[in-house]
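Work Package 4 report. The design task specified in the project plan requires that, given a folded chain encoded as structure tokens, an amino acid be chosen for each position. We show below one input record used in the internal validation round.
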């Protein structure tokens, strides 16, 4: 049983919803990422999504785009991200870590090499934004062989045929993009989410996490009532961007604690 599956099953037994924060590896610098990851867990994170910096993050809004730019200025590459996960894993053997990013860096490394390195570092899941299920059978076969969960995005516009494909291939959890747009966008329509989640559950037995556009505790609570996990990225990255180096870890921890307290009311 994977760490992700174990985590969601324990949460279900306790009647709790998952908090899944996102940060970009190497933002604001390479020395801060691992302490930030530990701070996220201490503040109540159940799963960590760790962004792999990329020069053309097409699904991300300006906030996470700037985070990737800052990390790339430090020369952070995929192998550095894997090293960060290994460093984190040396002290934390239970919190699932999901790498989230784009296909190009993985293709450059090679899927077999990437899957091997992920297993060695302690990565639990991989979400490649621009890698559709129709093209992923061979690539994600390498992940399956190393016990790593391939995680897919679903959107409000996803067809039933695509949902069925994802249901067959996905492991761990499915990430539902709550709105049409990029990360950090506004105009979250809770009624639309409430209508869509039951439809997804007709096809998908895995836990469903919802993200994009969740920016405060009130919205996190409202979304938590509708799904199995709440993904918060841009708001946390914004806190990193706006904090000075001395207060950064403390400020992020405080924000995540607020989100945790809110979600626990679901």
């Amino acid at each position: 049983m994977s760490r992700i599956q174990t985590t969601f099953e324990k949460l279900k037994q306790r009647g709790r919803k998952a908090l899944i924060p996102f940060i970009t590896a190497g933002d604001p610098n390479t020395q801060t990422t691992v302490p930030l990851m530990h701070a996220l867990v201490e503040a109540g994170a159940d799963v960590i999504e760790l962004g792999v910096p990329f020069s053309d993050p097409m699904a991300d809004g300006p906030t996470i785009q700037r985070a990737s730019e800052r990390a790339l200025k430090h020369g952070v590459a995929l192998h550095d991200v894997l090293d960060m996960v290994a460093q984190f894993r040396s002290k934390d053997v239970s919190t699932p870590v999901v790498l989230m990013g784009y296909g190009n860096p993985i293709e450059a490394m090679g899927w077999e090499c990437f899957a091997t390195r992920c297993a060695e570092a302690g990565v639990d899941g991989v979400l490649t934004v621009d890698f559709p299920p129709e093209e992923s059978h061979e690539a994600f076969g390498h992940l399956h062989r190393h016990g790593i969960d391939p995680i897919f995005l679903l959107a409000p516009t996803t067809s039933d045929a695509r949902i069925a494909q994802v249901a067959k291939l996905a492991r761990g959890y499915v990430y539902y993009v709550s709105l049409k747009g990029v990360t950090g966008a506004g105009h979250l329509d809770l009624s639309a989410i409430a209508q869509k989640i039951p439809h997804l559950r007709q096809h998908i037995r895995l836990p469903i996490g919802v993200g994009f556009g969740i920016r405060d505790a009130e919205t996190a609570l409202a979304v938590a009532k509708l799904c199995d996990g709440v993904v918060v990225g841009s708001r946390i990255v914004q806190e990193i961007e706006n904090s000075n180096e001395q207060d950064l870890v403390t400020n992020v921890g405080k924000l995540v604690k607020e989100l945790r307290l809110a979600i626990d009311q679901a």
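The mean pLDDT is 93. Validation will be extended to a larger panel in the next phase.
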